[in-house]
Please model this.
Amino acid sequence: MASEYPIRPISPGEYPAFAAVHSHAFNSAPHGQDRRERALALMEFERSLAAFDGTTLVGKAGAYSLRLCVPGAVTPVAGVTMVGVLPSHRRRGILSALMRRQLHDIHDRGEAVAVLWASEAGIYERYGYGPASWHAAFSVNRHEVRLRAHVPGDAGLRLRIAEPGASRDDLARVYDTVLDGQPGLFKRDEAWWNRVLAERDPAPTSTPLRCVIAEDDDGPRGYALFTAQEAWDEDSFLPAAKMAVQEVMTADPSATAAIWRDLLSRDLIEQVRADLRPVDDPLIHLLADPRRLRARVSDGLWARVVDVGAAAGQRHYACPVEVVLDVVDDVCPWNSGRWRLAAGPDGSGRASAPGLAPPGGYRAVCERTAAPADLTLPAHALGAVYLGGTRLGPLRQAGIVIEHRPGAVAALSAAMAWDPAPWCPVIF
Ligand SMILES: CC(C)(COP(=O)(O)OP(=O)(O)OC[C@H]1O[C@@H](n2cnc3c(N)ncnc32)[C@H](O)[C@@H]1OP(=O)(O)O)[C@@H](O)C(=O)NCCC(=O)NCCS
Model:
């Protein structure tokens, strides 16, 4: 059993063994010097966990202390990462032991939510994580697309080609403006920006990371980071270059249109790929023929509610609601049982007067109750709906959420859904 493999944080001196497990588990080449330095700059050794077989490090997990935008607020969460078990030691319960220990540690630190990217979508539900954000990958043939006839425009807006590293302040200014209203984004400090700007198309013939900024006299309003790859069709001698868009971040509609107009009209480019885009990307609505995006959708951030009462109070709600949840949580048993969640102007679940919801939504109070449950749901379902991008209705239809009071699922689903959909453009 896993207790044969004691678990503890590692010291910096043990990092090579930690990294070696990663390399074996992910079938990846060992990191070079640059990448290792970037990883170490983000590493929080006190949050690392390693399982040992005697003196051999055989399993590992880590966590970043992130400040994540959730619906209506920015809040501390654990960004779980670096999970792997040495192939020789798989299926002995080592991951399960690491996950349980880590969730207890996260709870002890007072973080109410954990998030992660899953290498495979069948792994984390058993630990109470659910798919909470989704992302789209677009693959566009440049000659097939054009923007619709009338898109937002601003004569004061201009484009500037910039060097990404030297433009970090401009990029951060745009990013920080977007962050506050975009669930799924997390705050980036210097180490995170170093990592984002170092990521690029792995094709050896691709350009360095390029940057274009949309700005006016008051400063930057949007940017794109991308690489391109020169290519020519040998039979026809026609241009066949490819562009890989790494990140587009824009603060207003005119900047969004200006950046995409540029990216989708570059000379000599045949194909534009944009991965890790939001599922509600405004680009879909900017194109005259959006099917030409050839979109593929997949799961993004998985979320785990580590403390039901605190997590429910940290995010905001789109409309007033009052429901009693019966939470089933074997991994974090302190969450199990009934909770009364009430969102509204005074946390009562009642709307004060007809009209618009306040900017940033309604706050909620979530407390223990002995009242009968309106719905029963497992921890992973609560995690899935936490960021407002996965709906409760389909979870009920799939038999995962059980409704006891008719209308309770629809009411809670309407309150928890969020506009914009959660989106995380960085895999960590
Ligand atoms: C995924 C991984 C960490 C699992 O580690 P492990 O120690 O073998 O896992 P455990 O023995 O604790 O397995 C716990 C449960 O998860 C299941 N499981 C493990 N890996 C799984 C996978 N890839 N897909 C689906 N289920 C998986 C096990 O079957 C077991 O199920 P059970 O509780 O019903 O018996 C390990 O296989 C690995 O390192 N894989 C490659 C790297 C990777 O994908 N890491 C995750 C990064 S997000």
Residues 308-416 form a domain with the Nonspecific Lipid-transfer Protein; Chain A fold (CATH 3.30.1050.10). The CA atoms of residues 374 and 405 lie 5 Å apart.
